[in-house]
Design a protein that fits this description.
seven-stranded mixed β-sheet; six-stranded parallel β-sheet; globular; about 25% strand; alpha/beta
């Protein structure tokens, strides 16, 4: 007697953690799995980091966001389907998407190859739905190849916190042996200390409280400065003055207090995003020819450099994982400042 074989139906639904309006709560909803347009791929998301910049989507601080919107710009996964005209990327390939979600290729900056400063930059999780979901679609110019030896949960935070600190440091002008200070031992700072150490700098980690000293040394700091117990700028001057201070903690007051810790031709590299002003006098900058520069992540090519360097050097994020269904809890944990040190959603 012949038997019929039951063929399972291909699912067309997925789970997403969306925001329906500025300041709204996370909603776990069922959505149709999207189809990739020409020049795009569909990604089966394996992990997505929860970044402080996701507040821009959650609270509607970025102008022009269309809701409902799914946040998430630290995406690690595999290509599930490719759109028309996509030939350089294949189904099953491990890829990621970071902050840089695409560029227009027509503005003056793009025509000069400065894609990072595209006038019409697309941001994953802001310009289009990001990685707080099981599947997402992204343009090919946003894709980052992930080395096989890096796990999804390790790779995800490196696509924002990692590239931001790595890229800022390698463009800072500091040379091996120079004194480089990292302000903050948090989500960005704990990676900044590791990268600075692997670059061959003498690393001074600046944190609040003596309890961070052991961790800072473990991450690769030569010196730990407790900004609650001492004046960090004076301590840096005792060490000869910092060639670079990488400001990772989003406190303009703390950044302002460090400017006098810069040595001659020293530079304050600002990567910790905040809305209040940094206070500095012209005399502080003129004396010693000091500079302040902001730095925003980088291109997918920069992300690939970051991942390869992390793979070779052993730099890894310290993470806490949450399932997608607990996106609200994960986001709250990130905002609390108590996470050690990056929060990652897993699918």
């Amino acid at each position: 007697m012949a038997t019929s074989r039951v063929v399972p139906m291909k699912t067309t639904q997925m789970k997403s953690a969306q925001i329906s309006k500025p300041g709204g709560d996370f909603e776990i909803v069922e959505r149709e799995i999207p189809e990739p347009d020409a020049g795009h791929v569909r990604i089966k998301v394996q992990a997505c980091g929860v970044c402080h910049s996701d507040v821009l989507t959650k609270e509607g601080y970025w102008p022009g966001i269309q809701y409902p919107r799914v946040p998430g710009h630290e995406v690690a996964g595999v290509i599930d389907e490719v759109g028309a005209g996509v030939s350089a990327w294949k189904k099953g390939q491990r890829i990621g998407v970071g902050w840089h979600g695409g560029q227009d290729n027509t503005c003056r900056e793009c025509r000069r190859g400065d894609f990072r400063n595209c006038r019409n930059l697309k941001v994953c999780g802001i310009s289009y739905d990001g990685g707080y979901q099981q599947y997402m679609v992204a343009p090919v110019e946003a894709l980052v190849s992930i080395p096989e030896t890096l796990s999804d949960v390790d790779a995800a935070p490196l696509l924002c916190a990692g590239i931001t600190t790595y890229n800022a440091l390698r463009h800072s002008g500091a040379f091996p042996g120079d004194l480089v200070a990292v302000q903050g031992i948090g989500g960005l700072g704990h990676l900044g200390v590791q990268f600075a150490n692997k670059f061959g700098y003498k690393v001074a980690a600046i944190g609040r409280g003596a309890e961070n000293a052991a961790l800072a040394k473990k991450l690769g700091a030569s010196v730990y400065i407790d900004s609650q117990a001492t004046k960090a700028a004076e301590e840096l001057q005792k060490l000869g003055g910092a060639q670079v201070i990488l400001a990772t903690a989003p406190s303009s007051k703390a950044m302002s207090e460090l400017i006098d810790g810069l040595g001659p031709n020293g530079k304050l590299m600002v990567v910790g995003a905040t809305f209040d002003p940094i206070e500095v006098t012209p005399l502080q900058l003129i004396s010693g020819s000091r500079a302040i520069q902001g730095w925003a992540s980088g291109t997918p090519a920069d992300s690939e450099d970051t991942l390869r360097f992390a793979e070779l050097s052993g730099v890894r994020p310290m993470i806490e994982t949450y399932p997608l269904e607990k996106a609200a809890e994960a986001y709250a944990r990130m905002l609390s400042g108590k996470a050690e040190f990056r929060v990652v959603l897993t699918m």
